[in-house]
Design goal:
Length: 164
């Protein structure tokens, strides 16, 4: 896995132009069965991929925390939301709550998440490759292929499955 993660940013850069063109076409003419295709590709990839061997998303990026996330996680810790924010979060340039630092404070050395059952929505949905109306998140996906080996593989399979 270390080798895959080491090579992933370079592989993503090499495919960036090709992926950008593909997503541009996808936005203009999404296939009628796109959601179904993406769900199949996502499910197939995650039958082969074990996130606990990687956790690169948790090590290199931080999720956005919605107000509902803050409330839920603060309750889990038996804290007031304002205490949770002060201790773990900061407000970014776009006025969103994000972690004060990465890797994620809640990631253990074994790649397990200490707040898995109450984790933020962004973490539950990552890498967003099974999202409805997938064509609407192409910019996010272009970023995620450089972070998540599974997202990279799904996009490569998607380009084979969807012909323009």
């Amino acid at each position: 896995m270390d080798e895959i993660l080491r090579d992933l940013p370079q592989k993503a850069r090499e495919k960036h132009s090709e992926n950008k063109k593909f997503f541009s076409k996808l936005k203009k003419r999404p296939p009628k069965d796109l959601d179904y295709t993406m769900q199949e590709l996502h499910d197939a990839e995650f039958e082969r991929t074990e996130c606990l061997t990687c956790a690169n998303c948790c090590k290199t990026t931080g999720p956005l925390f919605t107000n509902a996330d803050v409330e839920r996680i603060a309750k889990h810790f038996r804290m007031k939301p304002s205490q949770f924010i002060d201790e773990f979060l900061r407000v970014d340039e776009e006025n969103d709550y994000v972690l004060q630092s990465v890797p994620c404070t809640f990631l253990g050395a074994d790649n397990y998440c200490s707040i898995y059952d109450v984790r933020p929505k962004a973490c539950r949905e990552f890498p967003h490759t099974d999202r409805k109306k997938f064509q609407q998140i192409s910019n996010l996906t272009l970023k995620n292929v450089a972070i998540c080996p599974a997202a990279f593989n799904i996009v490569e399979e998607m380009k084979k499955a969807i012909k323009f």
